[in-house]
Amino acid sequence: MSDLTDVTGDQAPASLTSETPADLTSETPAVPVDRAPAEAPPAPLADPAPPKDRRVLRGVLRWTAAVAVFGVLGSGVAYGITQQERTDVPGLATKSDGRWDYPRLVRPALPAGAALPYDDDNPGMIHYAELEQLLLPAPAGATPDPTLKGEKSRITADRFLQEFGTDSRVPSMRQDLAQGGPVQFAARGWTMPDGTATRIYLVRFHTSGYQSAFTMPYLSNAGVAPRVLKDVEGESGMDTDYLPGGQGVAHVRHDVYAESAPTGPVDVRHAYLVAGDIVALVVQSRKGSAAAVPFHQTVVLQEQLLG
């Protein structure tokens, strides 16, 4: 999964690479050589050559010690690898669990003097960053959704409401969106080689109060999905496998749903993320069945960008 780097104000992202240590080596000063004496002392008598079997014994002992040392080192390396997650060991990263290869995430810079959305001096919990920069980028191998490629990822309220199909509350949702005056809509979508389609929508309101006035009557969690999305033939229940134990990103509420069996021809998973003045809708669908792992990964990363 991608790391998230903070960038605030107009400062550049802090470098994550360590500085190269200074070169601690130095040249060894030359040792002065004295003149040889006029008469050299007699050379010491040479030791007799060791017997052949003694040389063989010494060689065997040296090789035995070397094998023992490398055996200990090898055991230590193997132990270290088995104690780490595979993705923590260079060269052993694995996507066998179905995760996608997302680019490294970077929180966008804020306008000069703008407060962070959850600072004490920002009571409206307003995200002052560009809304498009808060959208999760597509993973490697994705094909962009041509219906969500407007200028700067901007879309209309009607395009957002298309996700709710024939839900009976769509007309009143459209009216409240027009009267409540969300600042803007943005969206991004893509399809993976296996046919899994992903669409992410962000709706930014004037303040968190306006956001709450819209989400409370239409998107409140009641154990089952409050709205029926298109391609869902039955109902969607809470996805209890998403971040079990209540973990999550501070200041972001997530309601995550999976289509209840039996599903129709298209299996749909979706989530609502509520973060200050922004509401996000994440939809992932696939003919047959939609895998849980890439969906959970996508929701977690989008949640981090809004947190």
Structure description:
- The structure is a single chain.
- It is built from five helices and nine strands.
- It is an alpha+beta fold and about 300 residues long.
- The chain has a domain of about 200 residues.
- The strands form two sheets. Strands 3-4-5-9-8-7-6 form a seven-stranded antiparallel sheet. Strands 1-2 form a two-stranded parallel sheet.
- Helix 1 links the parallel strand 1 and strand 2.
- Helix 3 runs antiparallel to helix 4.
- The longest helix has about 30 residues.
- It is globular and about 50 Å long.
Features:
alpha+beta; two-stranded parallel sheet; 9 strands; about 15% strand; globular
Average pLDDT works out at 77
N→C terminal distance:
17 Å
How would you write the strand order of the largest sheet? 3-4-5-9-8-7-6
Q: Helical amount among residues, as a percent range?
A: 10-25%
The SSE string, one letter per element, is EHEEHHEEHEEEEH
The share of residues in extended strands comes to 15-25%
In terms of quaternary structure, the protein is: single chain
Per the principal axes of the C-alpha atoms, what is the gross shape? globular
Structural class comes to: alpha+beta
Report the count of strand segments: 9
The DSSP helix count reads 5
Report the sheet with the most strands, covering strand number, pairing sense and barrel closure: 7 strands, antiparallel
Low-confidence runs (pLDDT<50, min 5 residues)? 7-48, 52-58, 63-94
Rg on CA atoms, Å:
32 Å
